[in-house]
Amino acid sequence: MNLGKIAGVSLVVNPLFLLLCLVYIWLGWGLEILIITSAVLVHEIAHTLMAAGLGVKVVEIELLPFGGQARMEDLTGLEPDKEIFIALAGPLTSLSLAAFFHFLYSGSDSEPVSLFIYINLLLGCFNLLPALPLDGGRILRAWLSRISGYKKATARAALLGKLCAILIGGLGVYIAYYNIVGINLVIIAAILYWAAWREGQLLFYSFMRFLVNKKGELARNGMLPARQLVAYPDTLVKEVIASCKPSYYMLVVIVDNQHRIIGMKSEAELIELLMDKGPGARIGY
What we know:
By secondary structure, this protein is α/β, with parallel strands linked by helices.
């Protein structure tokens, strides 16, 4: 469900999250779900503001019970250092809000304030778990990508996400045996497992979407303007990809120190190389 845009970013609510909200309202917990939604929204806005500050365009935020998922405009948002800062922004904001309101209203018996503090504390700590699609998983993926590349790093972090979902689901079933509140954990676990599976597919879909768009342009027009770059073999792939534009096709001519042509790579080959080898990939691989 699309709720509109905030600063040019589409705000989407996951259907299961919406269903959970409706159930809470039906049970008379309207204020509680309002506080939870507010905390999640602030958490995601923090991600978006950090991304904007780092020059990464976020086009969509999907709200989930444990936080949300931000979708980047293009593959240049995969730079590990940027991903770490963007991922940290959410949990740090949530924990800071929890600490601020805790000290500001220390000794207060206000239930809404206590719940707001608790939700932000839980949201911040939970999202630091090293499992995709949680923020901690993004930090882990960014760190692993330096060593094994984006594909393997994403697969490993997404696997941890699935394992976390299974453990949370098992805990939820156990608690639900004694208290119906455990159902919440089961629902969160189901969404987390689905999101972890989807996260594992995102790089592949991003790559395929890029190829389909370029092929579509070529099929419609019968031709596509090309831009050629000349580079040495040790040039970083990410630096070349940063200059890619949708209006033309890029070809990179690789030359040695004597300016003799030793190879050529297309945009598609460069993106695949970046996902396989990570941010340290060089054109001469």
